[in-house]
Amino acid sequence: MNNLLELAVRIFNDTLPKSCDAAFLYSQTPQNQPSVAIAGKKIVKNNLADKLLIMQTKAMSGYGGFQFFKDELLENAIPESKIEGVRSDDDKMLHTLIESLSVVEHCKEKNYKSLLVCATPFHQLRAYMTAVSATLRIYPELKVYSYTGEPFSWTESVVHSQGKTEGKRAELIHGEIERIKIYGEKGDLISVDETLAYLNQRA
Q: Are 129 and 98 in contact (CB under 8 A)?
């Protein structure tokens, strides 16, 4: 538990480089998408990344789709030239692991060396751990940093997890911790200690 607390504090307060090659905004349901769109605006405004990466898929699994997300980014005054689509081999489902594997493959193909990953706050811990898991599997040279989405009301009920889970944002944290345990046991996710080791060697 102490190591999980250390990991959470470090992920939510990551030490960032002056700029990364790209930032990946994890797909969210429409209620939570503004969280990462606002974060994307701040990333661009502060020159923290050269490109904003989003999944280039149709609407599915609770995600509004590439064009829906892109339109919101444009409404947040993000130049179209900054937005880059990430393709997935799976055209029937979208979830955190599929997104993570897809974006790491994308970074490898583009020869990107550094990546910010951004999800809504209750999802950020698992999203970052999944991104690092994919990185160590596919492209260990990639340096992955954490940038948390904009916080919204923790007591508001929202839909999450492929559009199938509903609850107050604060309640969804507990589900995320449970998924970290389940996916770790399945082998889809590296452990808390392995993620801490990655952060220590990355720094």
A: no
pLDDT in tens, 153-162: 999 998 766 5
Nearest CA to 141 out of 111, 186, 117, 116 is that of 111
Cβ burial, residue 171 (10 Å; 0-12/13-18/19+): middle
Distant-in-sequence, close-in-space partners of 2: CB < 8 Å, separation ≥ 6: none
CATH 2.40.160 fits 2-202, yes or no: no
pLDDT of 48-63, one tens digit each? 999 999 999 998 888 8
Per domain, the residue ranges of the chain are: 2-202
Tokens, residue 88: 């997935």
Residues 6+ apart with CB under 8 A from 95: 61, 162
82: DSSP letter: G
